[in-house]
Amino acid sequence: MIDLKARPFYLDDEAIAWVQDTLAGMTVEEKAGQLFCVLFKEAKPEEFDYVYSILSPGGCMYRVVPSARAVEASQTLQARSKIPLLIAANLEKGGNGIVEEGTLVGSPMEIAATDDPEMAARMAEACAKEARAVGANWAFAPIIDIDTNFRNPITNTRTFGSDPDRVRRMGEAYVKKVQSLGLAASIKHFPGDGQDERDQHLVTSINSMDCDTWMATYGAAYKAGIEAGSLTVMVGHIMQPAWSKRLDPTLKDEEIMPGTLSAELMQGLLRDKLGFNGLICTDATTMAGYTLAMSRRRAVPESIARGADMFLFARNLEEDYGFMLEGIRQGIITPQRLDEAVTRILATKAALGLHKGVPAISQEAAAQVVGCAEHQSWAEDCADRAITLVKEQAGVLPLTPERYKRILFYTIEPPAGGEGNYKVKAACAKVREMLEAEGFQVDDFVPQPYGEGFTTKYEDVVNNYDLILYVANLSTKSNQTVVRIEWKQPMGADCGHYMNDVPTIFVSLENPYHLLDFPRVKTYINCYSNNDHCLRQLVEKLTGRSSFKGKSPVDAFCGKWDARL
Structure pTM? Predict the structure, then answer.
């Protein structure tokens, strides 16, 4: 039996009666529908019609859409649902995780660089207020992965860094604030990303820590989030072999499963060892890290049978719903396990007060909250306090037109736009324009045609420029394997060929680990985000009008001794 009066639900008798009565009145098909949290990528009516022609889901998520569309979608979907919906968003940085006009307060790593849990609480407050204003009630956040492997291509600035204690404090602050404002938190991605150098979107990845080290780091972060009352945990397509084998010594290597398919991790570690009583949701089951682990026909019901309560997204909704029903009919998911999962889904909804009615929202009210001046001021303050001077050549800063009139500007940035849901926002050109507005003469570096013995004269660069400035804007995104600098041809044309004669500064707007590829640069700055607040504060600091205040949440030197020179 699930104790619905205990943490994290804390339900009263009225709410418990609603959960029990609702469950008792449901068909097997309705229960199976509640297991699904579906994706409405664009939140358009034709998507709703398709989904509801197959099942009535327990939850849904929008990708980032205009605020007006999100409000209309939330109203439409809640009215269409017999049981109130959990409406989720990736609220990892701010309200921009659900609507285009939302505030990006700061990436988790930017938040962590302030070394102030109150900044994490501010970010959570902006997330909660802006998301609630458009009808959301579930934050797929905070990320409490620990960026222990700087080569990981997906964790990076999405984490609070590599210091387990700082990650724990930031995650706990987020959970407390976001749930105090009426959203369910989801601590993720259990059993913990950031150890492997591979992306769970593309491969079933591994958290390779031994049990005791895991418990003192990742385990401590999860324990803090659980004790802070997190209603949900998102489980990743990540294996934790040490714990799997400790909890089931009979397991062979080929039998070790990712968290989303592991009874040892979901029930043995998360529920029994860490004491989590809330809702367990899988990460997106469209990821290769999930699909590579087991035949999908079997995996869909096995996720629920082995301990998950909610199944995130679908490759083909009609087919996956059929697989789930087939698993129920075959007894892979027992009636008891099905009722337990649905009970936790309903209890989460009751804990949010949805059994009493869905909160009213409107376009007008949302416009007053989303992207509001107060939240923008928090983002500006976060940028001011986060930007980190990692290493400095004595005497190079500050920059003034009197000292460095002529700047040679190197842009390291992918082509404009990018692809998919993690598009790279162009920012380097804005930095150049801001410097020109300060009175600097800024020329873009242009590689010359290949020809050993025929390149631009070395002294033509040395004698014509007072400063060299690199600005890198390489961001993590799904379905990439590395976040590294790819130097231009010919022969690394934009490498630091002139830095021994011309003062050189390297600024990273996103990835904090570029010293791996440019270890000998003597002045290096990390910003952790590429929003306008960071760009503005960067120029303030370069010109000496503001001091550098950030405390690096990672080893920006990547463990390389030469990077410290």
Answer: 0.97
